Amino acid sequence: MTSRSDVPGSAREGSPDVDDSGDAVVRLRGITKRYGTTVAVDGLDLDVRRAEVFALLGPNGAGKTTTIEMCEGFLKPESGSIRILGLDPVADNARLRERMGVMLQGGGGYPAARAGEMLGLVAAYSARPLDPAWLMDVLGLTDSARTTYRRLSGGQQQRLALACAIVGRPELVFLDEPTAGMDAHARIVVWDLIDGLRRDGVTVVLTTHQLTEAEQLADRLMIIDRGAAVATGTPSELMQRGAENQLRFSAPPKLDLSLLISALPETYRATEVAPGEYLVEGHVDPQVLSTVTSWCARLDVLATGMRVEQRSLEDVFLDLTGRELRP
After folding, report:
1. d(CA 257, CA 259)
2. Per the database record, which ranges form the ABC transporter domain (predicted)?
């Protein structure tokens, strides 16, 4: 696995084209995109700061990939404005290509090209590329260098697409589902590489269906649903939001909650949200903790993992969208 310090420095030279009015490398204002009568993106505002990892989360059809493709210049919004590194991604696309890396969903490689040749060709277009051999080694592709793209596994294709996106030392990288189809070991390698990019000052914008991935990697994230933002913040901010009124604990499943409910204040709720996982909703204070532990003692059971202000990112996601996050 590569260490975080293994990623060579990216080009950081200043440019008169960069919008230096703030730290926003990506700035969207009132972006709308329709496909027929379907609104894919609905008045979206978004700021991504320099040298951060920003994750877009949302159910299928929420507008994540459409948003990314508009930022990359592949699609044009019907209304609103987009500035990428201070430039228009459509009108100034050629100039942006020198400073921006793109990892397309599904890889986007040439079927008959060999992996090593493909990465070498992309590197040749950069004035100061990373060493392709080093990058192939970091991503576990050295043994597949002479394998054609179509014969690579899905995970290998994803890793090669990532290599092509970053080999030119971009200032900004867009990654659409970067670890889709990868095994656990490859996923950790990619996570470490993305973390290394951030430490080197590269801005990373990614979409993902892996909630753990977003929680581990993202400095900030946005949850979108039906093309509109429903929440933005750091993972910890979103997981703490509203959790001050929640007490969670584990105990044997199917316990009789009627005595606990009757002992709690009238407006409180107590439910078994999953087998053996219990949730008490209401303002949590020492008296509530005492009530719960007394109830457990009466039933002669031990409550474990009792916690306040701890929600998973999945809890937040389901609260906001009402749907599971599926690939």
Report:
1. 6
2. 26-251
